[in-house]
Design goal:
By secondary structure, the protein is α/β, with parallel strands linked by helices. It has 2 domains: 238 residues, Rossmann fold (3-Layer(aba) Sandwich); 53 residues, no CATH class. Helices cover 41% and strands 13% of the residues. It contains 11 helices and 8 strands. It has an 8-stranded mixed beta sheet with strand order 3-2-1-4-5-6-7-8, sandwiched between helices. Helix 7 links the parallel strand 6 and strand 7. Helix 1 runs parallel beside helix 2, helix 1 crosses helix 7 and helix 4 packs parallel to helix 6. The N and C termini lie far apart (82 Å). The structure holds 1,4-dihydronicotinamide adenine dinucleotide (NAI). 1,4-dihydronicotinamide adenine dinucleotide binds next to helix 1 and strand 6. Belongs to the short-chain dehydrogenases/reductases (SDR) family. Keywords: Fatty acid metabolism, Lipid metabolism, Lyase, Oxidoreductase, Peroxisome. It is found in: Peroxisome.
Length: 320
């Protein structure tokens, strides 16, 4: 295996690494030479106050038993500074951060409490901010960093009963997008993954009988590759499940210019152009906001000049 992807000398923080997907990542990084901070506060799936050092300890033991380097960290991801400090104190650096820890507090929106909303946002979105913000100065200074954000198809597509979770998960995509730009000149890459795998979190949520095909170990290899120094892809979003991996991007319709020169833009103009506005016959893709702005600047030049109605005319027609 001469061309095997190794992580010798790299220090990795995997959050929520005591179970499920995070455990799989931590074991794999450990087996490939990285020093691993196994973060997990040992909570339950709804983030109630229960805590235990056992899940993190067990993963650390497994890594050490096969000759790898690992240390447990029991801080909540809400305290990103403390988690990153564990990496610095034990291994002297931080190269790779996998934002993975997560909980669910599913409820239909009408029954969702402020606590359900806030807790899910704190553990998913705010924690990812807190951790990444703490790791960022180290990554900048050493001109190397790999950050993974874990989003969800519930965020990308929406899912009944997950208003809190899907909003936080979509927030992570925005965070990854922006940090991919801010990190570019320091060789810090930021990517988001939307995994699907059997875990205690998805118990009863995935098709029964699919367990053999939807194992966390079929998600792990993508995370490893994205975190390797040989992969420079950044600002990307991937769906990954059961061994299938695909890149996801936003698409928009060619749309319609519904405004005419020297005429007010009206709701009727929108209605009359609706078919074109929503038609995906010729989709457009923009990879940066600058592309999007230049598209708009080109499009406004296509305004037709054949309607000389003025705002005042419409106003008079409507109200007189
Ligand atoms: P899991 O429940 O098996 O593992 C999550 C781990 O995070 C647990 O060990 C838990 O103790 C830990 N954790 C929770 N709150 C924490 C906190 N405040 N501080 C430190 N650790 C904490 O869940 P799973 O399925 O492995 O999920 C991992 C990530 O993947 C989550 O972000 C989840 O939202 C996301 N995800 C998973 C999907 C799946 O199909 N399993 C689908 C889409 C997203």
């Amino acid at each position: 295996f001469l061309d095997m992807l190794r992580f010798l000398g790299r220090v990795v923080v995997v959050t929520g690494a005591g179970n499920g997907l995070g455990k799989e990542y931590a074991l794999a990084f450990g087996a490939r030479g990285a020093s691993v901070v196994v973060n997990d506060l040992g909570g339950n799936t709804s983030g109630d106050s229960s805590q235990s050092s056992r899940p993190a300890d067990e993963v650390v033991k497994l890594i050490q038993a096969s000759g790898g380097k690992a240390v447990a960290d029991y801080n909540s991801v809400e305290n990103g500074k403390a988690v990153i400090q564990t990496a610095i104190d034990n291994f002297g650096r931080i190269d790779i951060l996998v934002n993975n820890a997560g909980i669910l507090r599913d409820k239909s929106f009408v029954n969702m409490t402020e606590q359900d909303w806030d807790l899910v946002h704190r553990i998913h979105l705010r924690a990812a901010y807190s951790l990444t913000h703490a790791a960022w100065p180290y990554m900048r200074k050493q001109q190397f960093g790999r950050v993974i954000f874990t989003t969800s198809t519930s965020g990308l597509y929406g899912n009944f009963g997950q208003a809190n979770y899907s909003a936080a998960k979509m927030g992570l995509v925005g965070l990854s997008n922006t940090l991919s730009f801010e990190g570019a000149k320091y060789n810090i890459t930021c990517n988001a993954i939307a995994p699907t795998a059997f875990s205690r979190l998805t118990q009863g949520l995935l098709p029964s009988g699919a367990e053999e095909n939807l194992k966390p170990e079929f998600v792990m290899p993508l995370v490893l590759y994205l975190c390797h120094e040989s992969c420079s892809d950044t600002g990307s979003l991937f769906e990954v499940a059961g061994g299938w991996i695909g890149k996801v991007r936003l698409q928009k319709s060619s749309g319609a210019m519904v405004r005419r020169a020297n005429a007010p833009m009206t709701a009727e103009d929108v209605r009359d152009n609706w078919k074109d506005i929503i038609s995906f016959a010729k989709p457009l893709y923009h990879l940066t906001q600058a592309d999007q702005v230049s598209h708009i600047m080109n499009v406004v030049e296509t305004i037709s000049n054949n309607d000389e109605k003025t705002t005042n005319d419409i106003f008079t027609q409507t109200f007189s």
